[in-house]
Amino acid sequence: MIEEQSSSLLKISKGYELLGSSLDANLLAELQALSSNFKNDALHTQNENRLLRIGIIGQIKRGKSSFLNSLLFNGQDVLPKAATPMTAALTKICYAQQPKALIEFYSKNEWDKVKNLADKAFTKQASYENALLEYQANKAISQKQGVFIPSPAKPVLSDEEKASIELLNMVKSSGLNVAQYLDTTISLDEVNNNELVDKLNNYVGASGEFTPIVKSTELHLNIESLRDIEVVDTPGMNDPIISRGRRTQEFIGQCDVVFVLSNSGQFLDQSDMSLLAQNIPNKGIEDIVLIGSLFDGALLDEYHKYPSIQQALPAITTKLNNQAKSNVDKVCNEFAAHQSTEDNNQSHLMSTLQNALPPIFISSRCYDLAIKPEQSLNEEELHTLNLLNGMFDDFSFNANTFAAVANFTKVLSKLDTVKAKKEQILADRFNNLLIGSKREVKQKLAQIADDVTYKRKNLLEGDVESLAKKQQEAVKRIESGTVKVNSVFEKYSIQAAKTLTRLLTDINQDAIQVKQVQSQSGSREESYTTSREVSDSSWYNPLSWGSTRTVTSTHYRTVNYTYASVHEAVSKLESFVVDTSKAIYDVSENAIQLGLFKQDIKASIKDMFDFTDDNFDPEMVLMPLNNAVERITIPAVSLDLDAHINTIRQQFSAEQVEGDDIAQLRTEQARVVALLLQDISVELKQCINLIVEKLAKEQSNFIPSLTKDLVASVEQLKQDLTHKEEVLKGYDDVLQKVNTDLATLNTNL
Q1: What is the torsion angle, in degrees rounded to the nearest 10, for the CA atoms of residue 45, residue 288, residue 85 and residue 591?
Q2: In 652-723, which residue ranges form alpha helices assigned H by DSSP?
Q3: Against a cut of 0.70, is the pTM above it?
Q4: Structure confidence by residue, pLDDT tens digits, 212-262
Q5: Taking the CB of residue 409, how many other CB atoms lie within 10 A of it?
Q6: Dihedral through CA 379, CA 385, CA 389, CA 391, nearest 10?
């Protein structure tokens, strides 16, 4: 069956190789990749006695490793948190009587790319620093002369460039001989579970010597809950390292079930949906479990609206459920409004996600707090414990209430349901994969047909002069409308700057509360000593008559005093930094609604043309326009959280202070808040500059990019006209084959 279906899809793609000169090279390569990927994934589905593969997917920083540590390992950090998202590695976990780990390092080619990207970034930075020095040297002179010289623009690095710099710096600081390990896989064996975890830290832990060069790991653990399944912990579908991202996609394609983790507070946002759409539809994955992670964060954000935890929990859960449904419905409606005939695979994803609602909202942190004794909690866990216990005056958490917030009972129940359906899931897996793959092939064939139809139309109806004239008119019209396009960019640039500036006002307002250090009353038992003189005379010793001695006595009394908790003050500062970092990331990510922005850009171009004019060819503009718009990207930014937390902790040492020292603590608290606000203000302005600069760069590139694509079709026609009949026959052959293949796929689908 696999060979037959693989041969069928391969035959379809092979048939177009003979027509390659008539096809867009990228579309042909993508079509060929589909048949190859299908065969690899299909072979996996047919392995005898294979395990049920469960993928844990989501964006970076969504708590995937913490979720698995709680779900599979009772809160033990078997899967260490990476130093940063740049160092995360894909991990496959399965059962074995004898624990071991397989560590796969980067290939030489992959590491060379990392080094090249880092070198490119270093060169950009060096050029900027040289230009900055020159600017500073000439600034005073130019001001005296009344000449304005703009300061050099800070270089904007791609995520992969940033990641490459970080990996290279980590390697340099450790002194690791990278060449010794590239293109190799090593095995850690003859260990028990705990020993394996300790050894693993050196390869995937935050400060592991080998962490920066590890591409993926495979863990075999003697844990009963892993029998009959294997779990794939992905580093994040938005992995900045391309080679790791490809490995992740490869594993996702061979998953039978996926658990999708998304932040409870912004469940399945536009970024989540975009990543899912890129990775899931054509893989035939029908079993999707939606998990809203970091629920404790949502609880801490919302609890003040409710009088008790008993009312807060169900109310917040209901609110998040409604928001999740609303987010999915919104994306589905937007998608449906722009859906074309080739988008059936995406439509299938949307319906699958809607069927998977409502999500299960969980807190891995609360699960750990429920099962761990307080004396074994780490600093982060103690911090969360104090925050949660401080929500309501008359309520403190215990193991049962932590377990209720954690909500892992529902997750375990869902996992048991999935395991019970194992045989059916595995039996259906090949057919689902086949349907998904055929759906993707149909989409690609439709794109090929559109591309060839447009080229054929130009070849039949126009000559070079006529088309060149139309293209020149279109280019001229677009270039003359540059102001209109620029106004869209500038509108969103101003909007983003205003949004982030308003955030700074909100942060300053929040800081007022953080400055306040509350004094508290306490009492304690104190000892004090009294002394008195007593006679030391004795009747039998005349010499002692009249002598005395001092007798001391120890007494105890209750003393009332006023104190302030240093720990509470530090906790407020740390919470302020964490909340501010989250706010900046969230606001910067949503400062520009990319979907609306792209629609407005398209509208500004479309307004330049009369689409009702019979002499106007809309495809001439729309196809290049879609390509140019899809190339636009906007970065999200965040604070350096660890640096700020370390700044706070360096300021305080005592647990609590009393008397005059309370005033000193308040002064110090205000000083640290001012210091933080100063740093945050600088970083936020850098965030604004980064987004504005990126928009400016996209703005300057957009019209040239669009007009370049428009002019390219003239060059294509010039080439086609030199062998018009031959090229026309090639186009006809492609369209005939597409129609035949689509009919075959529709019959068999």
Answers
A1: 140
A2: 660-722
A3: no
A4: 888 888 888 888 888 888 888 877 544 445 445 555 666 676 788 889 888
A5: 12
A6: 90
